[in-house]
Amino acid sequence: MDAKKQVVFIMTDTTRFDMVGCYGFPDMKTPNIDALAAEGVRFEKAYSCQPVCGPARSAIFTGLFPHSNASISNCMPLGADVKTAGEYVQEAGIHSAYIGKWHLDGGDYFGNGVCPRGYDPDYWYDMRCYLDELSEHDRVYSRKESASLDGIDEKFTFAHRCTDKALDFLEKHQNTDFFLTVSFDEPHQPYLCPEPYASMYKDYEMPKKPNFYDTLEGKPEYQKLWAQEHLYEDKKNVHIRPRLFLGCNSFADYEIGRLTEAIKKYAPDAMIIFTSDHGEALGAHSLTMKGASVYEEITHIPLIIKGGAYCPSPQGAMHQSVTSHIDITPTILDYFGCEIPPVLQGKSMRPVIENPGSAFHDTVFIEFHRYEVDHDGFGGIQFMRAAVTDTHKLAIHLLENTDELYDTVNDPDEMKNLIYDSASETVRDELHRRIVDFMNDTRDPYRGYQWKVRSWNKDKEKPDWDVDACTRQRPNGTGEKRQLDYDTGLEISEFVRHKRKIKKLAGQT
Cα–Cα distance between 344 and 352 in angstroms, integer? Predict the structure, then answer.
């Protein structure tokens, strides 16, 4: 009997790359994620598309950057015409189920409890569903960090209940083709975890990297506003002791272990993908949480893929170059033999899953718009577009006077901004061109001449009302009705074309 086509996608929330032991950080206790890496491919330089929960997830599950799928901040839903991986594979006859945090329905942090298109409603279980199971007292209790210090039962946690539902799905559907997502909220605040995890890092202090002492000199003004009083702390007397955050991270690993054991039993030929949505500054560059930044602590996330029967991977392998969340949905579609729609902005990772030493990307992109539509704070609107390569990062901050360029080989802590460094002009200008091309290629609705005309290249670029003078229409996939050309009313022959200039309005002489 042929092996079934099965994919299990596992995600945690706010797990930095350096919170996973197999990424070279043995103080981090993640034995089950480490074991998964030993069986598959570890991607050394994987990046979030936008380091905020909702937008990051929107890119993961649609294969479209947030600027294309409409979920540009937390609490903003996907566009009505945007499909997720579950919808694509369900249309191909694949049983698709989603268990865990969703954050893409436009509701509040917890979601609205309603199963979206493309997924089995019998297994739908977002955080609203979890809270609806609790009494009012337990709802409030579940949102307190101190709960973990009281010695809570693992069965009380969202993670444990998500895993239980996933185990049920695996047992009952082991003989079918399926796509199962298990999306933990952990280790996100309030860091709920039982013992021994709540005490596992009780006396642990994270080492201070040089960027903990960053004064943000020569960097964008918004970062100094973001840092607030942390910029002026006596850093020698500040200690990084995220006890419950790290404890919850190891608890999430325990739940992943429960899940991977069941996969071995019920779906041994499945492809397994593990990642996190974004990181957390934890004082790096004097910053907290995440936001409009390309810093490693915020954007660099773990990504591990164990190939399945229809896309085998070597054991314990590494892919050393930059990769992106934008490629996850195309990879899932490819595994199931589905057509990859031309509108998707990533590509299948099959070549580097099967041969991790092969070339894949030379540049990946990160963006930012707003942290959350409901909340003020967090800087409000911050337009950022960034390019990341194996050696450099360029970030353009549209509303700032200062952009950022880092040489990540010679300055891995990203301390020195090289944006005005004459010796770095060539690489800076090339990455700038790639960002502008990326915005054009993805039909970025926020593209315009302002991204081209920056203080560091004012002698090279001039503002132009016509910008690139192109029409860029959404490409049609198989079976979709062809779009029409505005100028002719006929079907489009080219999706990208120079638009007809109107010299004067009709009726004018």
Answer: 19
Nearest alpha-carbon partner for 345 in 357, 329, 333: 329
Does the annotation count 75 as an active-site position? no
Catalytic residue (choose from 53, 129, 248, 311):
53
CA distances from 384 to 302, 371, 387, 427 (A): 23, 12, 10, 19
Mean pLDDT by 10 residues, the chain (509 residues): 93 98 98 98 98 97 98 96 97 98 95 97 98 97 96 97 98 98 98 98 97 97 96 94 98 98 98 98 97 97 98 98 98 98 97 97 98 90 97 97 97 98 97 98 96 92 90 88 89 87 63
Catalytic residue among 67, 95, 103, 278: 103
Give catalytic status of residue 193 as yes or no.
Answer: no
Residues 6+ apart with CB under 8 A from 423: none
Q: How far apart are CA 492 and CA 418, in angstroms?
A: 44
Residue 422: other Cβ atoms inside 10 A: 8
Please state, in angstroms and rounded to a whole number, the distance separating the CA atoms of residues 119 and 179: 9
